[in-house]
Amino acid sequence: MTMIRVFVLIAAFLVNSGVFETVNYESQRNHLLDIINKEIKSLEGHTGISELSASVYSAIKNTPREQFVPPDLRPFAYENRPLSIGHGQTISQPLIVALMTELLKISPTHTVLEIGTGSGHQAAILSRLAKEVHTIEIIPSLAKKAQDIFQKFGYQNIFSYIGDGYIGLTQHAPYDAIIVTAASSHIPPPLLKQLKEGGKMVIPVGGAYQTQNLILLTKTSDGFRSRNILPVRFVPMVREK
Ligand code: SAH
User: Fold this and answer.
1) Which residue among 57, 72, 97, 226 is the one 20 to 30 A from 80 at the CA level?
2) Does the CA dihedral 51-54-57-59 come out positive or negative?
3) What is the CB neighbour count within 10 angstroms for residue 42?
């Protein structure tokens, strides 16, 4: 074999192994974080949040979104928009992921429940902030795919379930925080019940395939306080028949 051939083989191996890609994705991720921070600043009037906290910033910075999207969409992984993950579902827009995460004010002692695992990207970010994340997905093949990624990348504090998240997960309740990433026409009573007093829930409330309101609620001793944050568009929450 000539030297040139050996060189070409080594170069091809490195490109396939993703050594070059990682560098590239990291700078794209930093660029996206700059965009998110600018958008967060411009939305301060709605959200009351002026910038991402250091912990949320670093959780996003350390979570490779390209690993959670189908391979053919990887070139678009760091555009600030939702992307298709199959089965008519999407990985959420990075800005909205950042905002929902920030609103929940997660700390390292927290147990978090997510409804709508989808790609697993949001759960991965939460897992860097919380003690543990329990995430429920109703489409088995999406749940399986996300489980494979959690295992491959060593996300040991994410626990994934297949089922109807409307009814929550009583085994690990009450939760410090609940994040719902599919739109519901109302706040599911079982989820409210499974939230700790003082705990926070973010949820898009509104009709299917319409603009919904992203709502932040805090559970109180006699019910809950809620705040409208922003108009958003999520895929609908569906119910198990
Ligand atoms: N958090 C996801 C975004 C998911 S999109 C991410 O980071 O990629 C919403 C997801 O909610 C879809 O995968 C959809 O199948 C799921 N879903 C819809 N209704 C559900 C229900 N009742 N219980 C659990 N998951 C549900």
Assistant:
1) 226
2) negative
3) 9
d(CA 66, CA 105) in angstroms, rounded, equals: 25
- Name the pTM for this structure: 0.91
In CATH, what is the architecture of 22-232?
3-Layer(aba) Sandwich (3.40)
User: Ligand 1 centroid vs 137 CA: distance in angstroms?
Assistant: 6
Distance CA 60, CA 80 (A): 13
pLDDT in tens for each of the 241 residues of the chain?
677 777 666 666 655 555 555 558 999 999 999 999 999 999 999 999 999 999 999 999 999 999 999 999 999 999 999 999 999 999 999 999 999 999 999 999 999 999 999 999 999 999 999 999 999 999 999 999 999 999 999 999 999 999 999 999 999 999 999 999 999 999 999 999 999 999 999 999 999 989 999 999 999 999 999 999 999 999 999 998 7
The residue to mutate among 68, 73, 89, having the most atoms of ligand 1 within 8 angstroms of its beta carbon, is 89
Closest CA to 231 of 51, 34, 46: 46
* Catalytic entry in 92, 119, 127, 184: 92
Q: How far is the CA of 96 from the centre of ligand 1 (A)?
A: 15
